[in-house]
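PROTEIN DESIGN WORKSHEET
SECTION A - STRUCTURE
LENGTH: 154
TOKENS:
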């Protein structure tokens, strides 16, 4: 079983305060909270961050997101459950999360421009960058999502 490597909040509180300030900026960006939840969850799925997937799917459900849309998120291209604006955001999320492979394709950017103002494009890109940074903290230092005693594997 994976064990946490480091409590990064305790090790560098000022640095983590800066991350929390960034997170607060994302929340106050004016982008739809549901869209932000989808972006955070999708990036965390790509990065394989169990801690963040757990957190963001729980938060999304608390804010009214449906189980069905969360279950189908990794297959959003094949599902009619997502709006064109959400599709543009999810494609941009994938392009930037996998930027070394994708190099942020023009096709994804053109789709983004069709559904987001320039200001919103910057705000969405900040949200994508922030969740990717959070994923790196959680994965790198082996953060463990909450697990009930009866649910934990032996």
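SECTION B - SEQUENCE
RESIDUE ASSIGNMENT:
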């Amino acid at each position: 079983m994976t064990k946490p490597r480091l409590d990064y909040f305790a090790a560098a509180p000022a640095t983590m305060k800066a991350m929390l300030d960034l997170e607060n900026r994302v929340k106050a960006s004016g982008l739809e909270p549901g869209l932000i939840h989808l972006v955070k969850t999708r990036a965390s799925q790509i990065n394989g961050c169990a801690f963040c997937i757990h957190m963001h799917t729980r938060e999304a459900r608390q804010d009214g997101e449906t189980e069905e849309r969360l279950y189908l998120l990794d297959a959003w291209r094949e599902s009619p459950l997502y709006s064109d604006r959400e599709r543009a955001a999810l494609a941009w999320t994938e392009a930037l999360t996998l930027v070394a492979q994708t190099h942020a394709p023009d096709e994804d950017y053109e789709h983004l421009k069709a559904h987001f103002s320039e200001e919103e494009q910057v705000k969405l890109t900040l949200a994508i960058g922030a969740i990717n940074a959070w994923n790196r903290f959680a994965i790198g230092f082996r953060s463990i999502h909450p697990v009930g005693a009866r649910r934990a594997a032996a």
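SECTION C - NOTES
The chain is about 65% helix and 0% strand.
The chain has one domain: 8-140.
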